[in-house]
Amino acid sequence: MQYYIYINGNAVGPMSEQQLFAYSIDQNTSISTDGANWRPLYTYPELMVALRQRGGGYAGTELANKKLLCGLLAIFLGTFGVQYFVLGKTWGGILTILLSCITCGGWGIVMLIQGILMLCMSEAEFQRKYIDNPATMPLF
After folding, report:
1. Per-residue pLDDT of the chain (140 residues; tens, 9 = 90+)
2. Pairing of strands 3-7, 10-15
3. Do residue 66 and residue 93 come from a single domain?
4. Residue that finishes a domain, picked among 53, 79, 94
């Protein structure tokens, strides 16, 4: 597959995956397969695998800290969707706030369960379910 990269205000490409990683990129770098529809790199699972193999993405302690933070936020402030904002999933946070308002706070119970599950899962599973997952609002 051929990729385009948006870096320093310019679109560069097409290029192979190998050429793509010659640039200094991270999981939020804008990538396109057609030069028009730009998405963050983390929405391409095959590129996230390659990025982690090259030592990019979240590493051990940073991932463990993010998992702990998101788990605790889901338990204590889950009704406000704070954990989704921390994960960079803004629409998930907004949807959580709306669901909490519609259910008069009942959605907070779901977020409490999610927080407990976040704290109990491995870092690899957390990364797969919440960081690498392109879903707007990953739950369990």
Report:
1. 888 888 878 888 888 888 887 777 877 888 888 888 888 888 888 888 777 776 655 555 677 888 999 999 999 999 999 999 998 889 999 999 999 999 999 999 999 999 999 999 988 888 888 887 888 888 86
2. antiparallel
3. yes
4. 53
Residue span of the structural domain in which 103 resides: 60-131
CA distance 129 to 140: 8
Q: Are 40 and 11 in contact (CB under 8 A)?
A: no
- The answer to whether the CB of 107 falls within 8 A of the CB of 100 is yes
Handedness of CA 4, 134, 127, 137 (dihedral sign): positive
Q: Do 55 and 68 touch, CB atoms closer than 8 A?
A: no
pTM: 0.59
Same-domain check for residues 22 and 43:
yes
Which tokens is 58 given?
Answer: 């979240």
Q: How far is CA 137 from CA 20, 29, 48, 79, 127, in A?
A: 29, 21, 19, 14, 14
